[in-house]
Amino acid sequence: MLSGASLLRAISTPDRVFREGSWSPGHVLGAGYDLRLADDLLVIPTEPGASGYKTVDAGTPPVGEFTLAPGDSALISTIERFSMDFDVAAVIGPKFRWSARGLLILQGTTVHPGYGREKVDGHWRPVGGEGEPLYFVIANVGPGPITMRKGDPIAYLQVIGIEPPQQRTAVSNVGFEFLRDRLFRTGVDGTGQGGLAYFRSVKDLERAVDAESARRDRDWEQLRRQVDAEVAEVKRQVTEAQTTIDRVNNTSNMIVVFGIYLIAVTMLGVVLTTLVNLIGDLPEKLSQDRLVLVTGLVTVYAVSTVVATAVVSFFARSAIRRRS
């Protein structure tokens, strides 16, 4: 494994590890090199949390940063362009700074000798004259959004010196277009549906659960309002029934009191008539006494009538007050 001066010498040699001009000396760290996030050759969500994806390549404006909501996935690439000589290989490891935030990074573990090179006219040269970046498939499996910016360290590269193979062959590479079309199914307009199936399914399931929960909350609120309205209507009907019953009771009480009054007056009238007839049969010499007796009976009758009238009026007023 190369480190220190030998690592820097290997990286600094044009087209031995990186395409000249695509790497930065400031990212040599210990026994390795920090690979940086590019702002092109990306497939990212059209918006955080959206189900659609957009492609960022040479034909579209670069993207300085993007955000992945929980459940989102993306295809990213490195600023560094590889043109591996046949006497070196490399191993790749993810940066824990991203794992600690819930970012899952999927990549190959090895960069083979000859990666990023092609044979042209009998000579091994950088692919397309520019070399080949490394590609990573990432997914946010954490609890919150994750924002990534151009130049962020995304992986750690360690270079290993090896014996050159006797037969040199080009390294098979599926490339950006294959990964884009296979995992994200983008269309001719650069947008599409897809993403890593598992994480997309989890995200869709979460959306379905949230939608069902919201629907149940709305239904529960509607049911609660309906029950409250029905309870209020029952209370109103009970109040009206109680008022009607009170009115009937008050009327009945008045009729009973008035009936008692009539019976009492009738009985007093009968008694008075009987006494007057009895007094009329008394001897003439008792005429003065008879007059006094008749006067007393009339007085008693009058007082009884007045008292009975007062009692009826009292109960009538009480019934009216209770009804109101």
Q: What would your notes on this structure say?
A:
The chain is an alpha+beta fold and 324 residues long. The chain folds into two domains: 4-195, Deoxyuridine 5'-Triphosphate Nucleotidohydrolase, Chain A; 209-323. The protein is 44% helix and 21% strand. Strands 1-2-14-7-9 form a five-stranded antiparallel sheet. Strands 3-4-15 form a three-stranded antiparallel sheet, with no helix packed on it. Strands 6-12-8 form a three-stranded antiparallel sheet, covered by helices on one side. Strand 1 (28-29) and strand 2 form a beta hairpin. Helix 4 (197-280) runs antiparallel to helix 5 (287-323). The chain is rod-shaped, with a radius of gyration of 52 Å. The chain crosses the membrane at residues 255-279, 291-316.
Sum up the overall morphology in one term: rod-shaped
Overall structural class, as computed from helix and strand content, comes to alpha+beta
Q: How does the major sheet shape up?
A: 5 strands, antiparallel
CATH class of the largest domain: Mainly Beta
CATH architecture of the largest domain: Distorted Sandwich
Q: Distance between termini?
A: 102 Å
User: What is the radius of gyration?
Assistant: 52 Å
Give the overall pLDDT as a whole number: 85
Transmembrane segments: 255-279, 291-316
Keywords: Coiled coil, Hydrolase, Membrane, Nucleotide metabolism, Transmembrane, Transmembrane helix
GO molecular function, one term: dCTP deaminase activity
Organism: Thermomonospora echinospora
